[in-house]
Amino acid sequence: MSFIKTLILSFCLIGSFGLSAKENMNVLFIAIDDLNDWIGPMGGNPAVKTPNFDKFFANGGMSMYKAHSPSTVCGPARSAIMTGKHCYNTGVYGNDTNLKNAPKAKDLLTIPEWFSKHGYHSLSAGKIFHKHPTEKEIDHGQWAFDEHHVIKGGLGAKSKAKPANGLLDINGKQMKGKGLEFDWGPTVKNDTTQMKDYKIADWAVNQFQKRSFDKPFFMAVGFSKPHLPWFVPQKYFDMYPLDKIELPEIKENPHEKIVNEKGEFIYGKAFREDSKRWGRAEKYGVTKNALQAYMANVTFVDDCLGHLLDGLNNSPYADNTIVVLWGDHGWHLGEKKRFGKCLLWQESTRVPLMLKVPGVTPNNKRCDGVVNLIDLYPTLSELCNIPVNPKNDGRSFAKLANQPDMKWNKPTLTSWLEGNHRIYDGRYSYINWRGGDELYDHKNDPLEHNNLANNPEYAKIMAKLKALVPKHNEPESPRNTFDKKKMKELYKKQANK
Length: 497
Hints:
Blueprint: H1 3-15, E1 26-32, H2 51-58, E2 62-68, H3 74-83, H4 87-90, H5 111-117, E3 121-126, E4 132-133, E5 138-139, E6 147-149, E7 184-186, H6 196-210, E8 217-223, E9 230-232, H7 234-238, H8 269-283, H9 287-313, E10 321-327, E11 332-333, E12 339-340, H10 346-349, E13 353-356, E14 366-372, H11 376-383, E15 412-415, E16 421-424, E17 428-433, E18 436-441, H12 459-466, H13 484-495
Parallel strand pairs: 1-8, 1-10, 2-14, 3-6, 3-8, 7-9
Antiparallel strand pairs: 2-13, 4-5, 10-13, 11-12, 15-16, 16-17, 17-18
């Protein structure tokens, strides 16, 4: 970007209190599935190689260090992000609920629809919404875009065994059903370019370099890795020798003993189900293998990101495209003896969120403002100088683009399932799960092991945060009722198109 153009754009932003540019800028909206904070700009695990995340950070991709998701599982998180409405206001609480079947969500305009309404051309490829079966096709959220492209391809596991990693169930029997998803290993070919996520990036690069848009564009690109199963080319596994991998800090879990007012243990089935992965990995001595696989998948998606951003930077759109990158929720990798997401602890709620406004966001900058992915809808609207949807629950953080050090610590909300919430204010997190109270001081206990809920010294702090918990929760919206056999046939048909 030329100095004069940068100066003009900066003055426009400053003149509008840091909220909007003079022209409608393009948007590149990058979603990454199950990516936790194990990338360089988030500092979760310095051993993970993410040179392209680091490069983006060094070149204006500001890291929103205290970003959290509106939910800790894909479906409700993405529904909330894309509609700008919290789960408790829509009744979309789980992966089996399609927002199009939710009475309080089905008529809401999603982010791409809002941008299309205000003069943008919206297009997408990859996973942006959580997919759902319908009578005729798989609903990828294609209805929300002017163009939606289904990208074929991908490489399967090198091993023909199921699971490929040979992991048995906790009782030493052959694994079946949903447990097969906790699987990893090298792909058939050691070729990054044949992986589906890389092909999605390649599609976007072709749009940047070969297409002339007559409107500003809103382009959504969704990467599926590092979602399970963890199959990527062997070269990524080779980057992480098992003898060099260190386990996260793992303590005996006091959370299993937390009770509600009735004296009932609040962490029952939901806790045990997701902990089975940890139990299996620990029993069979493959905890480091699981970490190796996740790290390999993160570095793979880093390569996809690099290809995507290099394509943008070498195109005519480099200087007038806002780039926002986000992970839909976090992921436990041994902490609290869990491999997985869900529940409301920090490992599941904290997410990568990076924002670049060309010529405005500073290089190598970490912003400590407390933000939520639900804030993306109004933030991007303001940055692109289009009206903010008055139905949005989120709060625009556009001011932080050129004032990243300003105070920004309004508490934020994360939910999972009906009536369970977490409030986080940048220092303390309050969790109400199944009627039980938890309070953690992140300054002194960043891993959330010391529950202060019953400590009278913290009663005022807990009361203040507890008062922010929603008083009303919409009833759960209808779940998908599609026949499983038909669903499998539909997925197979879709894959062969």
